[in-house]
Amino acid sequence: MGKIMTLGEIVVEIMATQRGQTFLEPGLLAGPFASGAPAIFIDQVAMLGQPAGIIGCVGDDTFGVLNIERLKRDGVDVSAIHVIKQATTGSAFVTYRKDGERDFVFNIANSASSQISPAHVDAQVLKDCKHFHVVGSSLFSFRIIDAMKKAIEIVKGQGGTISFDPNIRKEMLRIAEMREALRYILEFTDIFLPSGNEVTLLANAADEQGAVREILDLGVREVVIKRGARGSSFYDASHHVDVPGFVVEEVDPTGAGDCFAGTFVTRRLQGDASETALRHANASGAMAVSRQGPMEGASDMVSLLAFEESAVAFES
Ligand code: ATP
Fold it and tell me: Which of 47, 58, 144, 235 is buried most, with the most CB atoms less than 10 Å from its CB?
């Protein structure tokens, strides 16, 4: 089995324990939890028994150890995680509004993760990689963009495939070079995994169908749209299917999209039909939101199957 790899931020997350709690005054917090969108994605891949690895940087501190030990425990190859002296591991602090919306305080832009550079990417590091995953929010510096492009070119050059979860921070789109980088990645993408409202962000068409057609015309083979509790949809050149999500109590939404993507990509590479992979991915997203902590809901296949058997599908 070829390896699935990714590149990007590895951070800790610390969150409020009550809805409506803010950081304007002291309150009870939970964490630190292992986190970072690419880290959550790759942890989910490893949980499904697929060889998995991540290229990234952490600081020479306890948060770095927490992440490395956690990823290692779940089966991720951590040999391409670099411990940077004189840098700290990034962190994200989260509060939940009464309506469930989240507010974040990020300490990532100047953390160890910002040190990722093309020097960390080469043919040796990627030698067993048959699939490489890109998360848009990881592209927060031009140095990281160059590292990502280098990885994509190497993996494509050795016959591998690429998936891309745009996870776009809107402010990125206002910077022409960032927008260009996202379009560049899209042109190399085999599996594109936007959230519902992101589908049109990188296309000219204003409606979903038009945007999907435009993206497939670029050469993207599969477009998978995440729709929160409602589930997800799959499009390729000849086929479209919607698969409902599973009903769960949402405890913590962070990480659902990454667990979903990890499961969809892994199961497709392992040979599942699109609809089957979508069902497993929906289960993975649902299990992720039902646990506190972004990586705590990553699940193995036995748990996913047991969940699917007992869970009720969402009805619109
Ligand atoms: P995030 O960026 O917060 O990780 P996302 O926007 O990329 O999330 P979502 O659509 O929120 O992705 O979630 C991914 C998948 O997880 C959904 O397509 C669905 O299958 C599952 N999911 C998400 N929220 C829920 C929920 N409340 N109940 C059940 N399943 C959910």
Answer: 58
How much is the pLDDT for 175?
78
Q: Is the CB of 284 under 6 A from ligand 1?
A: no
| ipTM computed for the complex | 0.98
Nearest CA to ligand 1 atom 3: 254
Contact status, residue 28 vs residue 18, Cβ threshold 8 Å: yes
**CATH architecture for residues 3-310:** 3-Layer(aba) Sandwich (3.40)
CB 56 within 8 A of CB 38: yes
Can you tell me whether residue 232 is helix, strand or coil?
Answer: strand
Give the CA distances from residue 142 to residues 1, 38, 147, 150, 210, in Å, rounded to whole numbers and listed in that order. 33, 18, 9, 12, 30
CA of 180 to the centre of ligand 1 (A): 27
pLDDT of residue 187: 95
- pLDDT for the residue 176: 82
- Sorted by where each begins, the domain ranges of the chain are 3-310
Q: What are 91-135's pLDDT values in tens digits?
A: 999 999 998 889 999 999 999 999 999 999 999 999 999 999 999
Q: Is 257 in the pocket of ligand 1 (CB under 6 A)?
A: yes
| Ligand 1 and 255: CB distance under 6 A | yes
